[in-house]
Amino acid sequence: MDPHQPYRPPNDFHVFTGPTGEFDYPPQLIRSLNKYDGEILYLDSEIGSLLHYLRKEDLYDNTVIVLTADHGEHFYEFTDKNGHGHTLYSVETHVPLIIKAKGSPRKVEETVSLTDIYPTLFDIVGIDLEHEVQGSPLLSLENQDRVPGALTEFTRYSCDKAYVSANRDKLMISYDAEPDALITQEDETATSLYELKTSHLEREAVTNSGLEKQLRANLYLLYAKSLEYRKKINVETVKLRNDSLDELKALGYIN
Prior knowledge:
The chain has helices at 27-56, 90-93, 117-125, 209-231, 242-251, and strands at 65-68, 74-75, 82-83, 97-100, 150-154, 159-164, 169-175, 188-195. It is of the alpha+beta class.
């Protein structure tokens, strides 16, 4: 029930007809955006039905609920492609994250990552992790020995990386390297710096050598930690069922 290509909202939710967003979209693209918004509306309705069921069955108060997404969606804002898996701009990488649990509501103001969800859930239910993981528990970030901010990597067609600081400053770097190659600063071919608090659509890059140096240092620190963590992972081969393979093919994840 996730909003995803191809955009086919149920008829009752295909209700959007006008321009949308803050970009100047052509008419044919607006139709796709309206369908995408219809899928979001349908998802919202289904989530409401789930929450209603949990309350009706007296399960809501003792249930931890996580609302998030693995990616956003690109509608030709920065490239000649739409969908996702093409760039590291915020239209694809900035996703919602809402966690419902017991206790007083709170908002984490700094930039966090989806890798923080796993340790956060263990922290909420009071289970100690017995192995090293990426990410940090969001309820106690101030007590963590961590590099603040979030690293995003794109290795599908090219080698690109982006770092967003705790204060929502963002550095995007492209590399002259194979998608999964180990990289250094010598491999850099292009950089873009954005202050997302004042330019959340990333229309205007800024020049600030001091800030860029700081963000680059944190990007490479997080990248080094990521490489170190990957070396410790024991990868096991798993044979998928045919129905699982069909689902992955339908989503475009495998050929």
